[in-house]
Amino acid sequence: MSKKIIISNWKMNPTSLKEAVKLAKASDKKDVVLCVPFVYLKEVKKVIKKAKLGAQDVFTEESGAYTGEISVKMLADIGVKYVILGHSERRAMGENNEKVNKKIKTLIDIGITPVLCIGEKERDENHDYLIFVKKQIEECLSGINKNLINKMVIAYEPIWAIGKNAFREATPAEFLEMKIFIKKVIINILGDKIEIPSIIYGGSVDEKNTRWFAEDGEADGFLIGRASLDSKKFKEIVKICETLKR
Ligand code: PGA
Fold this sequence. Notes:
This protein is α/β, with parallel strands linked by helices. Helices cover 37% and strands 15% of the residues.
Protein backbone atom coordinates (compact mmCIF):
# COMPACT_ATOMS: atom_id res chain seq x y z
CA MET A 1 0.00 0.00 0.00
CA SER A 2 1.25 3.46 -0.78
CA LYS A 3 1.56 6.03 1.94
CA LYS A 4 1.01 9.61 0.88
CA ILE A 5 1.44 12.58 3.12
CA ILE A 6 -1.50 14.96 2.88
CA ILE A 7 -0.75 18.45 4.14
CA SER A 8 -3.55 20.94 4.42
CA ASN A 9 -2.75 24.63 4.24
CA TRP A 10 -5.70 26.50 5.66
CA LYS A 11 -3.95 29.83 5.01
CA MET A 12 -5.81 32.69 6.81
CA ASN A 13 -8.97 30.60 7.27
CA PRO A 14 -11.46 30.01 8.83
CA THR A 15 -12.27 33.21 10.70
CA SER A 16 -13.52 31.75 13.98
CA LEU A 17 -12.18 29.24 16.48
CA LYS A 18 -15.49 27.38 16.40
CA GLU A 19 -15.18 26.77 12.66
CA ALA A 20 -11.51 25.86 13.01
CA VAL A 21 -12.27 23.20 15.62
CA LYS A 22 -15.11 21.83 13.49
CA LEU A 23 -12.90 21.60 10.40
CA ALA A 24 -10.06 20.02 12.40
CA LYS A 25 -12.36 17.33 13.78
CA ALA A 26 -13.69 16.57 10.29
CA SER A 27 -10.16 16.39 8.84
CA ASP A 28 -8.64 14.25 11.59
CA LYS A 29 -7.20 11.37 9.55
CA LYS A 30 -4.01 9.35 9.52
CA ASP A 31 -1.16 10.64 7.31
CA VAL A 32 -2.72 14.11 7.44
CA VAL A 33 -0.99 17.28 8.64
CA LEU A 34 -3.16 20.26 9.49
CA CYS A 35 -1.28 23.54 8.98
CA VAL A 36 -3.51 25.99 10.75
CA PRO A 37 -3.21 29.68 11.71
CA PHE A 38 -1.08 30.21 14.86
CA VAL A 39 -4.05 31.26 17.01
CA TYR A 40 -5.83 27.93 16.46
CA LEU A 41 -2.87 25.62 17.09
CA LYS A 42 -3.54 24.86 20.75
CA GLU A 43 -7.25 24.16 20.36
CA VAL A 44 -6.78 22.12 17.18
CA LYS A 45 -4.14 20.06 18.99
CA LYS A 46 -6.72 19.17 21.65
CA VAL A 47 -9.26 17.76 19.18
CA ILE A 48 -7.07 15.80 16.75
CA LYS A 49 -6.15 12.19 17.47
CA LYS A 50 -4.74 10.91 14.18
CA ALA A 51 -3.65 14.01 12.25
CA LYS A 52 -0.43 15.89 13.04
CA LEU A 53 -0.23 19.55 13.92
CA GLY A 54 1.43 22.02 11.54
CA ALA A 55 2.06 25.76 11.29
CA GLN A 56 2.34 27.98 8.21
CA ASP A 57 5.53 29.84 9.07
CA VAL A 58 8.01 30.49 11.88
CA PHE A 59 10.57 33.20 12.69
CA THR A 60 14.31 32.72 12.20
CA GLU A 61 15.34 33.51 15.82
CA GLU A 62 14.62 31.50 18.95
CA SER A 63 13.58 34.32 21.31
CA GLY A 64 14.11 37.99 21.97
CA ALA A 65 12.99 41.46 20.89
CA TYR A 66 11.07 40.55 17.75
CA THR A 67 7.60 42.04 18.12
CA GLY A 68 4.89 39.93 16.57
CA GLU A 69 7.02 36.91 15.75
CA ILE A 70 6.66 33.22 16.75
CA SER A 71 9.72 31.04 17.36
CA VAL A 72 10.58 27.42 16.66
CA LYS A 73 10.79 26.75 20.41
CA MET A 74 7.28 28.09 20.96
CA LEU A 75 5.91 25.85 18.22
CA ALA A 76 7.77 22.78 19.47
CA ASP A 77 6.52 23.43 23.00
CA ILE A 78 2.87 23.19 21.95
CA GLY A 79 3.33 20.08 19.83
CA VAL A 80 3.79 21.38 16.27
CA LYS A 81 5.37 18.69 14.09
CA TYR A 82 5.47 20.36 10.65
CA VAL A 83 5.99 23.93 9.41
CA ILE A 84 5.41 25.21 5.87
CA LEU A 85 8.32 27.36 4.69
CA GLY A 86 8.84 29.56 1.66
CA HIS A 87 5.24 29.42 0.47
CA SER A 88 4.84 31.66 -2.57
CA GLU A 89 2.37 33.85 -0.68
CA ARG A 90 5.00 34.47 2.01
CA ARG A 91 7.74 34.95 -0.57
CA ALA A 92 5.53 37.68 -2.08
CA MET A 93 5.68 39.35 1.37
CA GLY A 94 9.48 39.28 1.60
CA GLU A 95 10.46 35.71 2.53
CA ASN A 96 13.63 34.78 0.65
CA ASN A 97 15.80 31.69 0.20
CA GLU A 98 18.29 32.87 2.81
CA LYS A 99 15.64 33.18 5.52
CA VAL A 100 14.09 29.87 4.50
CA ASN A 101 17.51 28.21 4.77
CA LYS A 102 17.95 29.49 8.32
CA LYS A 103 14.45 28.36 9.29
CA ILE A 104 15.01 24.88 7.84
CA LYS A 105 18.11 24.43 9.99
CA THR A 106 16.45 25.59 13.23
CA LEU A 107 13.39 23.42 12.61
CA ILE A 108 15.42 20.29 11.86
CA ASP A 109 17.54 20.93 14.96
CA ILE A 110 14.49 20.91 17.19
CA GLY A 111 12.84 17.94 15.46
CA ILE A 112 10.09 19.69 13.48
CA THR A 113 9.67 18.74 9.81
CA PRO A 114 10.09 21.67 7.41
CA VAL A 115 7.82 21.61 4.36
CA LEU A 116 9.87 23.57 1.84
CA CYS A 117 7.79 25.13 -0.95
CA ILE A 118 9.45 25.81 -4.26
CA GLY A 119 8.09 26.66 -7.67
CA GLU A 120 8.30 29.08 -10.53
CA LYS A 121 5.98 31.99 -11.41
CA GLU A 122 5.65 30.98 -15.03
CA ARG A 123 6.95 28.53 -17.58
CA ASP A 124 9.00 29.95 -20.42
CA GLU A 125 10.03 28.30 -23.67
CA ASN A 126 13.73 28.62 -22.84
CA HIS A 127 13.23 26.52 -19.71
CA ASP A 128 14.62 29.28 -17.49
CA TYR A 129 12.12 28.12 -14.88
CA LEU A 130 14.38 25.13 -14.27
CA ILE A 131 17.26 27.47 -13.43
CA PHE A 132 14.94 29.36 -11.09
CA VAL A 133 13.86 26.21 -9.23
CA LYS A 134 17.45 24.93 -9.09
CA LYS A 135 18.55 28.19 -7.44
CA GLN A 136 15.72 27.96 -4.92
CA ILE A 137 16.78 24.44 -3.94
CA GLU A 138 20.50 25.27 -3.80
CA GLU A 139 20.01 28.37 -1.65
CA CYS A 140 17.36 26.89 0.63
CA LEU A 141 19.40 23.73 1.26
CA SER A 142 22.79 25.41 1.56
CA GLY A 143 24.82 23.93 4.43
CA ILE A 144 22.15 21.34 5.33
CA ASN A 145 23.47 18.17 6.95
CA LYS A 146 23.09 15.50 4.27
CA ASN A 147 22.09 12.89 6.85
CA LEU A 148 19.12 15.01 7.83
CA ILE A 149 17.78 15.85 4.39
CA ASN A 150 15.16 13.12 4.70
CA LYS A 151 13.80 14.94 7.75
CA MET A 152 12.08 17.42 5.48
CA VAL A 153 9.39 17.45 2.82
CA ILE A 154 9.69 19.32 -0.47
CA ALA A 155 6.52 20.69 -2.02
CA TYR A 156 6.65 21.63 -5.66
CA GLU A 157 4.01 24.30 -6.12
CA PRO A 158 4.12 26.09 -9.47
CA ILE A 159 2.74 29.53 -8.69
CA TRP A 160 0.73 29.58 -11.90
CA ALA A 161 -1.27 26.58 -10.67
CA ILE A 162 -2.08 27.88 -7.16
CA GLY A 163 -5.28 29.42 -5.89
CA LYS A 164 -8.48 30.59 -7.47
CA ASN A 165 -6.63 32.77 -9.97
CA ALA A 166 -4.55 29.85 -11.22
CA PHE A 167 -3.57 30.19 -14.87
CA ARG A 168 -4.23 26.46 -15.33
CA GLU A 169 -3.77 23.15 -13.56
CA ALA A 170 -0.37 21.52 -13.82
CA THR A 171 -0.26 18.05 -15.36
CA PRO A 172 1.12 14.91 -13.70
CA ALA A 173 3.78 14.75 -16.45
CA GLU A 174 4.93 18.27 -15.56
CA PHE A 175 5.10 17.30 -11.90
CA LEU A 176 6.95 14.06 -12.57
CA GLU A 177 9.52 15.84 -14.72
CA MET A 178 10.03 18.35 -11.92
CA LYS A 179 10.25 15.62 -9.27
CA ILE A 180 13.08 13.97 -11.21
CA PHE A 181 14.76 17.36 -11.68
CA ILE A 182 14.50 18.19 -7.96
CA LYS A 183 16.04 14.82 -7.03
CA LYS A 184 18.88 15.45 -9.45
CA VAL A 185 19.60 18.89 -8.04
CA ILE A 186 19.59 17.54 -4.47
CA ILE A 187 21.97 14.71 -5.43
CA ASN A 188 24.24 17.24 -7.14
CA ILE A 189 24.45 19.21 -3.91
CA LEU A 190 24.63 16.41 -1.35
CA GLY A 191 25.85 13.36 -3.26
CA ASP A 192 23.98 10.16 -4.03
CA LYS A 193 24.38 8.52 -0.63
CA ILE A 194 21.38 10.30 0.79
CA GLU A 195 17.80 9.44 1.48
CA ILE A 196 15.73 11.59 -0.88
CA PRO A 197 12.99 13.47 0.98
CA SER A 198 9.32 13.14 0.03
CA ILE A 199 8.50 15.35 -2.93
CA ILE A 200 4.86 16.36 -2.95
CA TYR A 201 2.64 18.36 -5.29
CA GLY A 202 0.60 21.47 -4.54
CA GLY A 203 -1.53 23.76 -6.68
CA SER A 204 -5.29 23.33 -7.21
CA VAL A 205 -5.29 19.80 -5.81
CA ASP A 206 -8.81 18.47 -5.41
CA GLU A 207 -10.72 15.21 -5.28
CA LYS A 208 -10.77 15.08 -9.09
CA ASN A 209 -7.04 15.24 -9.79
CA THR A 210 -5.56 13.51 -6.70
CA ARG A 211 -5.43 10.03 -8.19
CA TRP A 212 -4.01 11.38 -11.43
CA PHE A 213 -1.11 13.18 -9.69
CA ALA A 214 -0.44 10.22 -7.41
CA GLU A 215 -0.48 7.54 -10.09
CA ASP A 216 0.82 9.27 -13.23
CA GLY A 217 2.77 12.00 -11.45
CA GLU A 218 4.17 9.72 -8.71
CA ALA A 219 3.58 12.46 -6.15
CA ASP A 220 4.62 11.38 -2.63
CA GLY A 221 1.77 13.43 -1.27
CA PHE A 222 -0.04 16.74 -1.54
CA LEU A 223 -0.10 20.28 -0.20
CA ILE A 224 -3.69 21.40 -0.35
CA GLY A 225 -5.12 24.90 -0.05
CA ARG A 226 -8.76 25.49 -0.99
CA ALA A 227 -9.86 21.86 -0.95
CA SER A 228 -8.61 21.51 2.65
CA LEU A 229 -11.27 24.01 3.77
CA ASP A 230 -14.05 21.82 2.41
CA SER A 231 -14.19 18.80 4.68
CA LYS A 232 -16.17 16.73 2.17
CA LYS A 233 -13.61 17.27 -0.57
CA PHE A 234 -10.73 16.80 1.85
CA LYS A 235 -12.08 13.49 3.14
CA GLU A 236 -12.52 12.32 -0.43
CA ILE A 237 -8.86 13.16 -1.18
CA VAL A 238 -7.74 11.22 1.91
CA LYS A 239 -9.90 8.27 0.87
CA ILE A 240 -8.38 8.23 -2.62
CA CYS A 241 -4.87 8.29 -1.16
CA GLU A 242 -5.73 5.37 1.13
CA THR A 243 -6.74 3.21 -1.81
CA LEU A 244 -3.69 3.91 -3.99
CA LYS A 245 -1.55 0.93 -4.84
CA ARG A 246 1.72 2.83 -5.06
P1 PGA B 1 -4.63 25.71 -3.67
O1 PGA B 1 -3.42 26.25 -2.79
O2 PGA B 1 -4.77 24.24 -3.38
O3 PGA B 1 -5.82 26.50 -3.24
O4 PGA B 1 -4.27 25.96 -5.11
C1 PGA B 1 -2.26 25.50 -2.61
C2 PGA B 1 -1.26 26.26 -1.81
O5 PGA B 1 -1.16 27.48 -1.96
O6 PGA B 1 -0.53 25.67 -0.99
